[in-house]
Amino acid sequence: MEILRVEHLSKIYGKGETEVRALDDVSFTMEKGELAAVVGKSGSGKSTLMHLLGGVDRPTGGKVLVEGQEVYGRTPEEMAIFRRRKVGLVYQFYNLIPVLNVVENITLPLRLDGQRINKEHLDELLELLDLSDRKKHLPKQLSGGQQQRVSIGRALIHAPALLLADEPTGNLDEKNSQEIMELIKYSNRRYKQTTLIVTHDESIALQTGRIIRMEDGRIVSDEKI
Ligand SMILES: Nc1ncnc2c1ncn2[C@@H]1O[C@H](COP(=O)(O)OP(=O)(O)O)[C@@H](O)[C@H]1O
Ligand SMILES: [Mg+2]
After folding, report:
1. Quick one: which of 44, 85, 162, 224 has the fewest CB in 10 Å?
2. Domains of the chain with bracketed CATH
3. What is the model's pTM?
4. What is the whole-number distance in angstroms between the Cα of residue 107 and the centre of ligand 2?
């Protein structure tokens, strides 16, 4: 089953002299349960691609469909709901709310959505994230690896169609990076969670099933491994 379809996606920042073609005619699809990596040099358009897939920014041209539905061409309210329910976003620098504890950060998307918290599901997720004994801790009381696990929990709480992670291990040492990778691989297997990870670390990319290489805003190779 196709989860993601990207058609002729392009993004131009700025105008005239300062114009930057950050994405240039990018097309690909992802099936349910796929785990893929996007690699490429700094400035090749990886983050721009993630923002457009996550409904965070608007493309200059082209289409993104998640579960067959067009992401752009919605009202701002519909877009906000789309972002909350259909995609989970994980960034290099966790983006946690400093005054909220672990459980409050993880369940924030549900509360924003006015949804009840399923305690069993939350407990299972906390167990999976190895955060069961850190429920009431604030972000500043956690290690980098733990903070990233909280942000992954927040991204997964809604069981999103698509998990998007932009350099999720970019700020972590090797041991914590591998733990985050194990977590992403586990959620990919356990929930058939379709996942796209941006990384510049080949050893991370090689742990996925597919490597999409970008250069100057274009896909230059797309290989199953
Ligand atoms: N908000 C922005 N305004 C202008 N240019 C941008 C903006 N965001 C990114 N760019 C440019 O677009 C290109 C791609 O950037 P980005 O997607 O962040 O690449 P990557 O994540 O692969 O390092 C770069 O040349 C960058 O300078
Ligand atoms: Mg980037």
Report:
1. 224
2. 34-55+74-224 (3.40.50.300)
3. 0.95
4. 26
